[in-house]
Every structure is written in C-alpha cells, then in structure tokens.
C-alpha cells in the first residue's frame, strides 16, 4: 500500500521570505519527510510529484515522499506520534474528520499562522475557519492545519436507467417526501419490470466503516434543521425539538432500507461500495460526498490504456448518461444548506524540520502549484482559493458546473470544527450504528435516537 518517491537533489539558492537563508552549496542537504494520502487518480498524484520536483529545484531541500491508502494514514500517524517519529508534513483525507481537532486540543500540532496569515486573503473564508482550532495547552485558537481542498454532498443518477424505468429527469419531484417516494415506489418497480433484474432505485450508505454514511446522514439532519452544537461548540441535544427532528431524519434515512429500496448489503458498505454498485448499474442513484462517481467515467474516456470502445463508453456515460444533481427541498420547503468538509494538512510539534516543512507548505499553496493538484482530481475536490474557484475548469462540463453552483450557494461547517470531540463520534460512526440498530436489530427509531443522544452527551458534553 506504500509507494515512495524520493526527489532529485538540487543546490539552487532559495528565494526571499520563507525561502531565505539557503545553505551554501557545500553544506549538507536538508531532507524533509512528507506523508500523503494516495490520490484517487494518477493525474492528482502526478501534479503533487511535479510540485515536489519544482520545490526541490528552487530550495535545495530534498523531499522524501511516502504515500499511503486513506485507511492506513491515521493508524500510521498515531503510531508515529506514540514513537516520536512523525513526518515533517502530513496530509490525509481523514485527518480533519477523525483526528485533527483532538490533536490540536492536545497541543500536538504546530501553529501555522506564520504561513497562513500572509496569504489568507487568497482563501475562501469557510476554508480558513475550518483550519482555526483550539489548543488547550496554549489556551488559544490558531491555524493548526492548512486548507488544501474541500468536498460536499451530491446526487448521482443514471439517466439512461431512469428513462428505461419510464421516466425522465423532469419527472423527479423536488419536495422531500415526493422525492423519496418517487425513487422507491415508481422508479424501482419500473426498472425491475423493464430489465427483469433485481435493481435497486437508491444506494443508501449505512456501513459503520463508511464515511459516506455519516456524511449522508448529516444531509438528512440538515433537511430537518438539526443543529447538534451551537456556534461555541456547546451541545444542544437536550432541546426536545432537536430530538424530535433527529427522529424524523433517522426514520427517513432507514425507511429506504426497510422498504427494500437499497441493497441489503448497504448496511456493511465501505466508502467505495456505493460507487461500485452505481458503476455496475445495480442501483439507479446514490448520494456521494464528491463527484468521483462521474469522474471515474471521465477518466475512462481519457485513458489511452483502454480500448477505443471502452473510452467511448466512458465518454457517453460522463457526457450523456450520468446526472449530477442536488438533494430535493427540505421538508419545510427550504433549500438545504450543504456541509463543506475542508481537507487540511498538518505539521506536528514533534516534527524535526518545521522551518523547512513550512517552506514546503507555502510553496504548495501557491496558485500555480495547488490548482493543478486540485484539478488533477477531475472534479472530486473543490478549491479553497478564490482564484482557483473561478478557473475555467469548473465551467467545462455539466458535472463540474453543478459542483461550482452548489458551493457558490453557500455551505456550513461540520460540528467537529466547533467541538473537536465530534471527531471521536465520527471515528466511532455513531450515526451508522444508530441506523443499524433500527434496520438490523429492529430497535424503534425513537429508542435508537435516545441512545445516539446519550452517546453524544457522553463523548462531547
């Protein structure tokens, strides 16, 4: 699961600012270690490698890069923290959701304000806010991370399957109850009759090991305006209205399973599994926290290792057959405000080369370096800088335009940015556990919600 790329040696003199005071050519060369989550697409990783190559040539600092699968990053990082052998720079898609707030609180993260303050005007405010966390050792908030990219919730639909079921996109209701009834009571019988196959209308992630499950459930909570914490991070779960709306959200989420409208295996799905079900056309639609589903077909259309027929199939799927859409209106008729998950990189206080690590981060975040990295992910990640958000890339096709419009409509932060203890709840995936209490153990929804609230209070109170 590990690939290591060791950059070439360069003795160029560093530039001014953070690149000042370069060592003489005969001095021992500095090396920094960088741990990075493996990219979803080759173009993403290639862009990172190109930035490292340019950084080494500019500064004379050698970068030893190790890339790991997302599921390995936190266990490896925790082991490194325990052993005192942390990398100089680290990035994982899972840090912010499951660990960063805790590490900041415990004083394990380096303050990156000297990197971020001079350039913060280039960044969208919500991405800065997500990087400013509380340190209980210093008793202050600061930039205990650097924003790199962000993601939000989207719906992916097979338009050709919808048509085969006897419907078109214009037939999809936009009211909350009508929307879910349409998929379960109309599309599913229609597609099964048309194909003679056991196709499911919806892919509803519910696995405890799936981040999709809790991110999707947050969207259902947002549909009912559930706020588990206030702006100061204090719990609101003792409010009877919060409990009432949590019950509504959990009932709606689990009803899809109880009605037989999502595959039985969705209770054990991991993050790739709703993607796989969609690609295999065993489901008509699914909600996903990126447009990686559509982007997979775009990548196929560009992949010269595939046959011309396979590339053409990828092009047709991406340009014609797949729809990227939003959720329907909330039950009260309002527009759902989606959560933005801002992905951040870190420097640990125990790092051995913090000055050089900050040089690397500053270089990476320059527009000409960060933009190819984000766009190399083919729309899976949305930029954190104002300039990159206005790149022509986001107007190039219907899927990217949908992502752009959704982010421009305004987003909200996840609770873990206000109360770091929610990283523990996310790591446990109490949300998916509550779902499985209902669908697998036949516990009444209100009882499952009471158990969920009790656990939230126990951990985050």
Automatic annotation (TrEMBL):
Subcellular location as annotated: Periplasm
Transmembrane segments: none
SUPFAM superfamilies: Periplasmic binding protein-like II
Coiled-coil residue spans: none
InterPro entries per record: Bact_solute-bd_prot1 (IPR050490), SBP (IPR006059)
Superkingdom of origin organism: Bacteria
Keyword Signal: yes
Keywords: Cell membrane, Lipoprotein, Membrane, Palmitate, Periplasm, Signal
Pfam families: SBP_bac_8 (PF13416)
Family, per entry: Belongs to the bacterial solute-binding protein 1 family.
Name of this chain's protein: Carbohydrate ABC transporter substrate-binding protein
């Amino acid at each position: 699961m590990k690939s290591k790329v060791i950059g070439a040696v360069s003795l160029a003199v560093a530039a001014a600012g953070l690149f000042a005071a370069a060592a003489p050519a005969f001095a021992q060369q500095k090396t920094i270690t960088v741990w990075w989550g493996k990219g979803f697409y080759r173009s993403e990783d290639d862009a990172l490698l190109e930035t490292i190559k340019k950084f080494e040539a500019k500064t004379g600092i050698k970068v030893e890069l190790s890339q790991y699968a997302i599921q390995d990053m936190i266990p490896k990082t925790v082991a490194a923290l325990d052993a005192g052998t942390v990398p100089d720079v680290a990035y994982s898609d899972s840090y912010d959701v499951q660990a960063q707030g805790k590490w900041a609180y415990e004083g394990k993260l380096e303050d990156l304000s000297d990197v971020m303050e001079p350039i913060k005007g280039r960044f969208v405010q919500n991405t800065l806010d997500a990087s400013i966390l509380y340190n209980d050792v210093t008793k202050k908030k600061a930039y205990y991370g650097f924003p790199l990219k962000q993601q939000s919730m989207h719906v992916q639909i097979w338009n050709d399957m919808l048509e085969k079921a006897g419907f078109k996109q214009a037939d999809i209701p936009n009211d909350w109850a009508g929307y879910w009834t349409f998929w379960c009571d109309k599309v599913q019988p229609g597609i099964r009759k048309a194909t003679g196959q056991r196709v499911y209308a919806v892919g509803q992630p519910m696995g405890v090991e799936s981040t999709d499950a809790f991110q999707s459930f947050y969207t259902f909570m947002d549909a009912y305006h559930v706020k588990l914490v206030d702006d100061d991070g204090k719990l609101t779960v003792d409010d009877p209205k919060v409990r009432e709306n949590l019950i509504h959200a959990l009932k709606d989420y689990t009803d899809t399973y109880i009605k037989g409208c999502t595959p039985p295996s969705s209770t054990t799905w991991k993050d790739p599994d709703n993607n796989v079900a969609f690609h295999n056309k065993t489901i008509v639609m699914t909600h996903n926290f990126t447009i990686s589903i559509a982007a997979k077909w775009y990548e196929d259309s560009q992949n010269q290792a595939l046959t011309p027929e396979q590339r053409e199939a990828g092009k047709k799927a991406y340009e014609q057959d797949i729809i990227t859409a939003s959720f329907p209106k909330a039950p009260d008729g309002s527009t759902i405000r989606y959560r933005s998950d801002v992905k951040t990189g870190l420097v640990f206080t125990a790092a051995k080369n913090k000055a050089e690590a900050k040089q690397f981060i500053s270089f990476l975040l320059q527009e000409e370096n960060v933009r190819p990295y984000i766009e190399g992910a083919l729309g899976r990640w949305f930029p954190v800088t104002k300039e990159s958000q206005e790149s022509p890339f986001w107007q190039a096709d219907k899927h990217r335009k949908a992502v752009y419009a959704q982010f421009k409509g305004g987003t909200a932060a996840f609770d873990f940015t206000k109360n770091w203890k929610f990283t523990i709840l996310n790591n446990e995936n109490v949300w998916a556990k509550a779902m499985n209490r209902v669908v697998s153990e036949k516990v009444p929804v209100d009882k499952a919600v009471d158990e969920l609230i009790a656990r939230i209070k126990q951990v985050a109170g």
